[in-house]
Write a structure and sequence with these properties.
With 475 residues, the chain is α+β, with helices and mostly antiparallel strands. Helices cover 47% and strands 8% of the residues. The strands form three sheets. A four-stranded mixed sheet has the order 4-3-6-7. Strands 1-5-2 form a three-stranded antiparallel sheet, covered by helices on one side. A two-stranded antiparallel ribbon has the order 8-9. The termini are far apart. It holds the Pfam family Sigma54_DBD.
């Protein structure tokens, strides 16, 4: 017979307290996300308030007067609480949501034009000329290379080049590969059915610079009536002066650094970014109100609510303090390892792992991962994600440690210097790395790094159809 009974057992178990959960949440926010999070918290907690720096009547407490709040301290609401301020990054105005933004096409103009040209019945030579023209378009969609240069490159007549360019001009977007604005607009007019005797065509061909002068100018010049001129100008306004506009536009990404690495008096230093348009601090009115027991009357729930909100506010300030101190320690550890990169360049980027930094700052690897996630650092060499400084490494024959990023840079350098007619195989690159730089890595590793760099294989790099399709492969 089964016997049922109760018994007590001691079992060690990790329990995440609400305060610890808040610390972990704040820790992984970048400065812009943190900024938005704090605005939400201020709206829901009466003990938190904002003080905007650009208001002249505000009096600010110097940073030297700040008293550190330790995570282990318990909040005593009966005692005078410490005012504490934190500075945060600049807020970006919130835009009204637009579903059309989520439907934006990512297709590039060159790929779209190549797809269209491949549907045309052209000879291999004519396609090569078309690929070459497409590969030399600028960001606006205009051809920025002379027709004579193209003819010389392929050893063909100017008429042959012009024939191919005219085919491209009438692809979508119409007017692409034009030599100037006038030709681009005339191509679009011709495409939509206006011949050389039409008013819009005449205005663009002969009076493009005078178009801004308006209806009266052309009415007196040609004797056209006002409606004809107005209609023609309206048609011209609808034309696209930059055919590639919609294909080179990208979604704006706002990035604000969480750390700054800078050199002062020949010494590298790290700074946690705290400056911003407002200060978050505890609200004096509610602190004083909470200490006056008579104000609560016979409603203890009001006092209980306020005590909880006060605790939440203090927990948030402690979490922010923890975030800044840990971010500073991690930044300092990264700077210690990567000073040579900041001074000499990518080839001096050392291998660095989460474990290395965790041991340096006495935190767990998962905590380091949270700290560096989606955070950026401003350096004299530009803006970098903190993850950039972490990579596996290898040793050269001299015993020097090299990061995977440094080896990728060597691979790119070797390929950029190769003979285009005789590109190097991955095995050959592996051999050069070993003989010239003392870096012993396998062919498959070279292949992996080359693909990560988005550099085509040996077959694709040969001077052929694919080479002309893509133009320059590597930056």
């Amino acid at each position: 017979m089964i016997e049922l009974k109760n018994e007590l057992k001691l079992k060690p178990q990790l329990i995440l307290t609400p305060q610890l959960k808040l610390v972990l949440k704040v820790l992984q926010l970048n400065i812009l996300d943190l900024h938005n999070f704090l605005l939400q918290e201020v709206q829901s907690n009466p003990f938190l308030e904002l003080e905007y720096k650009d208001l002249p009547e505000n009096n600010y407490i110097e940073e030297s007067y700040f008293e550190e709040i330790k995570l282990k301290e318990e909040v005593n609401f009966e005692e005078e609480l410490i005012e504490k301020r934190f500075y945060f990054g600049k807020e970006e105005p919130e835009e009204e949501w637009n579903w059309e933004k989520t439907l934006k096409a990512e297709e590039k103009l060159i790929d779209y034009l190549l797809w269209q040209i491949n549907l045309k019945e052209l000879t291999p030579l004519e396609k090569d000329i078309a690929y070459y023209i497409i590969g030399n378009l600028d960001d606006k969609g205009y051809l920025r290379i002379s027709l004579e240069e193209i003819a010389k490159e392929f050893n063909v007549s100017l008429e042959k080049v012009e024939k191919i360019r005219n085919i491209i001009k009438f692809l979508d977007p119409v007017g692409v590969a034009s030599l100037n604005l006038k030709e681009c607009l005339l191509t679009q007019l011709e495409f939509i059915g206006y011949d050389k005797s039409s008013i819009p065509y005449i205005l663009v061909e002969k009076h493009l610079e005078e178009i801004p002068k308006g209806i009266d100018y052309f009415k007196n010049l040609y004797g056209y009536n006002e409606k004809e001129i107005e209609s023609a100008l309206e048609v011209i306004k609808q034309l696209e002066p930059y055919p590639a506009r919609n294909y080179f536009d990208v979604n704006t990404l706002y990035i604000e650094p969480d750390l700054i690495f800078y050199k002062e008096e020949n010494e590298w230093k790290v700074e946690v970014v705290k400056e911003g348009p407002f200060i978050v601090r505890l609200n004096n009115y509610y602190k004083n109100f909470l200490k006056k027991k008579k104000d609560f009357g016979n409603n203890p729930r009001v006092k209980k609510f306020l005590k909880q909100k006060l605790k939440d506010a203090e927990d948030l300030l402690k979490a922010l303090d923890s975030r800044y101190s840990n971010l500073y320690k991690v930044g300092e550890a990264i700077l210690k390892y990567q000073k040579e990169f900041l001074e000499k360049g990518i080839k001096f980027l050392k291998p660095l792992t989460l474990k290395d930094v965790a041991e340096e700052v006495h935190l767990h690897e998962s905590t380091i991962s949270r700290i560096i996630n989606q955070k950026y650092v401003q350096t004299p060499k530009g803006l970098f994600p903190l993850k950039f400084f972490f990579s596996i490494g290898y040793k050269s024959k001299e015993g020097e440690e090299l990061s995977a990023k440094a080896i990728k840079d060597y691979i790119r350098e070797i390929i950029n210097g190769e003979n285009p007619s005789k590109p190097l195989s991955d095995s050959a690159i592996s051999k050069i790395l070993k003989e010239k730089y003392g870096i012993n890595i396998a062919r498959r590793t070279v292949t992996k790094y080359r693909e990560e760099l988005q550099i085509p294989s040996i077959r694709e790099r040969k001077i052929s159809k694919n080479n002309r399709e893509r133009g320059v492969f590597y930056d």
